[in-house]
Amino acid sequence: xxxVVASFPTEADLRRALPALxxxxxxxxxxxxxxxxxxxPSILPLLVLIGGLIGIAIGFGVQVYANTIGYPLDIGGRPNxxxxxxxxxxxxxxxxxxxxxxxxxYFLINGLPRLYDPVDEVPLMRGATRDRWCVSVxxxxxxxxxxxxxxxxxxxxxxxxx
Length: 162
Fold this sequence. Notes:
The chain has helices at about 10-20, 45-70, 85-110, 140-150, and strands spanning about 1-10, 25-30, 135-140, 155-160. Helix 2 runs antiparallel to helix 3. The protein is rod-shaped. It has a four-stranded antiparallel beta sheet with strand order 2-3-1-4, covered by helices on one side. The chain folds into two domains: about 1-30 and about 130-160, 2-Layer Sandwich (Alpha-Beta Plaits), CATH 3.30.70; about 45-110, no CATH class. The longest helix is centred in the middle third of the chain and has 27 residues, at about 45-70. By secondary structure, it is of the alpha+beta class.
């Protein structure tokens, strides 16, 4: 696999080029502002919800076990399974589960921490966070990718040295 990096003058030019570039291989954009992609919604909110629900189940289950089976106490005639007393801790453990899932899920979904990527050494990438609309394409046909990128009104294009 070879990586080809290209720079486009505007966001509109980059958006027009993306469908054609996706046919060549895996595409990754480097832009001054995030591109809102309606085609691929994030799975992170669903993971956070599932993590929160698992946290709620674990928090409630541990309290039920501890107060009814593990170490039941008779405190002022209160029943062992007094669920209103379990609500604050259940809520807190649910929030903790959601936060931890969101934190770990964010890193896993984005492939972080990525400490080194050869694309970062390409001179075109130096302006990707300021004023350039850059894209990298991992492909088996770098000559075809370079030709396609140049035909799609790219400012500059180059192949990433291995």
